[in-house]
Write a structure and sequence with these properties.
The structure holds 2 protein chains of 2 kinds. Chain A has helices at 3-13, 28-36, 48-60, 71-74, 78-87, 109-121, 135-147; strands spanning 16-21, 41-44, 64-70, 91-96, 125-129, 152-157. By secondary structure, chain A is α/β, with parallel strands linked by helices. A 6-stranded parallel beta sheet of chain A has the order 2-1-3-4-6-5, sandwiched between helices. In chain A, strand 5 (125-129), helix 7 (135-147) and strand 6 form a beta-alpha-beta unit. In chain A, helix 1 runs parallel beside helix 7 (135-147) and helix 3 (48-60) packs parallel to helix 5. Chain A starts with a helix and ends in a 12-residue tail after the last strand. Chain B has helices at residues 14-25, 37-46, 61-71, 83-87, 91-99, 130-136, 148-160, 185-197; strands at 30-33, 51-53, 77-82, 104-110, 113-114, 120-121, 141-145, 165-170. Chain B has one domain (6-201): Rossmann fold, CATH 3.40.50. By secondary structure, chain B is an alpha/beta fold. Chain B has a 6-stranded parallel beta sheet with strand order 2-1-3-4-8-7, sandwiched between helices. In chain B, strands 5-6 form a two-stranded antiparallel sheet. Chain B contains 8 helices and 8 strands, in the order H-E-H-E-H-E-H-H-E-E-E-H-E-H-E-H. The chains are: A alpha/beta, B alpha/beta. The A-B interface holds A 17-18, 20, 41, 43-47, 49-63, 65, 79-80, 82-83, 86-89, 150 and B 32, 52, 54-61, 63-72, 89, 91-92, 94-95, 98-99, 185-186, 188-189, 192-193, 196-197, 200-201, 203.
């Protein structure tokens, strides 16, 4: 499944310079591509909320950035997301979902189900994509809404897009 | 037994420290100040377009400055924040250390108190040592400043030395009048971008 390449190409086309992330299996190939790209700065975070603040700072300095994270990370971002609305910073975040589809870990269910309501509570526009053929168009639209439309937005990448995860059971 | 009121007697006064750094930094210095007293300190020292004061998002000052630092590698970025604000974002020191931006200086104005909420003791009033945490996070240039002569020696390191640096400045816990910067975030962002990027900064 190469839908991650469509996100990468959309980011290149949108002139994204900073890619800040907490690693996730669903984002692993995309993160590797960004690390290998000399025209992008890939920054691993200790917690996702750092990424929200970093993207504000990147925009202050004249650069575009995106945040890559898993749905559980959204809960770590809630207060920091207020920065985007208060200052009208653009936001583009790609979120790999847990708590859907064949989720095996009950501890991922709560934040997975809370992801979309939490984002909407902080006035982040949420779109979802489940069909790999639609990832590129949705990614381009997310980045355009952020950096041209000056809006805060998230694209939820449905758990069907990533291999079914187990710990052996 | 830890003396939770020792900061009442610290010799360095935060408004004087901010004034000295603001004067030494000059007009080109990019300043990010954290919630909350460092906002008022640097406004008292002279509000200007290239200060970005955070009225909220506690824990966000250092990572916000990191994004700015990466976007502006030729400019010095200076963060002034408080001990409580820094304690809420300690992981960001490890994030900074990994990126190792040479143009980033962080000063923690440490009065060992939550200043906006009634001057309750923070963890630094007990045993937490932010300079040691920074060093253990991988920041090479760190120090704790308690006296004027130490501050005089550290300011050139902050403003001209090869960073990233984290200096904890132990400042007196004292009630001070509020000197407030503008609070509208969109205005603060736009004035900063226009001063830094020119007309291209306004979208």
């Amino acid at each position: 499944m190469d839908w991650w390449k469509d996100i990468y190409e959309a980011m290149k086309a949108a002139d994204v310079k900073q890619v800040v992330y907490v690693p996730d299996a669903g984002h692993a190939k995309l993160i590797d591509a960004c690390i290998a790209d000399n025209d992008m700065r890939a920054v691993p975070l200790t917690t996702e909320e750092e990424g929200i603040a970093m993207l504000g700072g990147a925009w202050l300095g004249g650069q575009r950035g995106v945040l890559l994270m898993q749905s559980s990370g959204v809960g770590n971002c809630i207060n920091m997301l207020g920065l985007m609305q208060t200052c009208r910073f653009p936001l583009a975040t790609f979120i790999t979902m847990r708590g859907q589809w064949h989720e095996f870990n009950p501890w991922q269910m709560a934040m997975g189900r809370g992801t979309e309501p939490a984002l909407k509570a902080m006035d982040v526009m949420v779109e979802s994509v489940e069909d790999p053929a639609d990832v590129g168009a949705q990614s381009a639209a997310l980045l355009h809404r952020a950096f041209v439309g000056m809006h805060a937005g998230a694209l939820l990448l449905h758990q069907r897009l990533v291999p079914i995860k187990t710990f052996g059971d | 037994m830890t003396d939770l009121t020792r900061a009442d007697q610290f010799p360095l006064k935060r408004r004087d420290v901010a004034q000295q750094i603001s004067d030494a930094g000059g007009e080109d210095l990019l300043i990010v100040t954290g919630l909350g007293s460092t906002n008022w300190d640097f406004t008292a020292a002279g509000d200007r377009d290239l200060i970005f004061p955070l009225w909220g998002v506690m824990g966000g000052a250092v990572p916000l400055a990191l994004g700015l630092t990466i976007a502006q590698p030729e400019r010095r970025v200076f963060v002034a924040t408080g001990d409580a604000e820094m304690l809420m974002g300690l992981g960001s020191l490890a994030t900074v250390a990994v990126q190792a931006p040479q143009n980033l200086a962080i000063a923690v104005f440490d009065n060992e108190r939550y200043g906006e909420t009634g001057m309750q003791a923070t963890a630094t009033a007990h045993n937490a040592d932010i300079a040691s945490i920074a060093a253990a996070s991988g920041i090479n240039v760190t120090g704790t400043i308690r006296e004027q002569a130490e501050l005089d020696a550290a300011i050139p390191i902050m403003l001209e030395g090869s960073g990233p640096s984290v200096h904890v400045i132990k400042v007196r816990a004292e009630p001070l009048p509020f000197i407030l910067p503008p609070k509208d975030g969109a205005y603060l962002k736009d004035r900063f971008r226009k001063a830094l990027l020119g007309d291209a900064g306004i979208v």
